DNA sequence: GATCTGACGAAAC
DNA sequence: GGTTTCGCCAGAT
């Protein structure tokens, strides 16, 4: 496979853009949607290297604990504006706002 | 080509 | 609820 990241970015972003406003999805959920259920770390890495924030709702992607990305400070504010509820300053209420796919 | 690292996940403790 | 260990894949060194 010589095509590398370009293909991964397409798959991941295609899944990310399906996340409805006011909801959040875990990396594992995205990974599963792209057919790589154990490849959640790739989702995060690809988003970090890509500059697609603004074109895709990558702020709606959080980890399994509802914790936000360590290098993505604006993420919390964006989610609050969309109506996502928080349990703590850095923890999303997964029970209420996790994407039901 | 081997090793380490990473916006992670799940299970075990 | 938190920490520890392991697993997974792709990129960087």
From TrEMBL:
<feature type="domain" description="Methylated-DNA-[protein]-cysteine S-methyltransferase DNA binding">
    <location>
        <begin position="11"/>
        <end position="83"/>
    </location>
</feature>
<dbReference type="InterPro" id="IPR036388">
    <property type="entry name" value="WH-like_DNA-bd_sf"/>
</dbReference>
<dbReference type="Pfam" id="PF01035">
    <property type="entry name" value="DNA_binding_1"/>
</dbReference>
<dbReference type="InterPro" id="IPR014048">
    <property type="entry name" value="MethylDNA_cys_MeTrfase_DNA-bd"/>
</dbReference>
<dbReference type="InterPro" id="IPR052520">
    <property type="entry name" value="ATL_DNA_repair"/>
</dbReference>
<dbReference type="InterPro" id="IPR036217">
    <property type="entry name" value="MethylDNA_cys_MeTrfase_DNAb"/>
</dbReference>
<keyword id="KW-0227">DNA damage</keyword>
<protein>
    <submittedName>
        <fullName>MGMT family protein</fullName>
    </submittedName>
</protein>
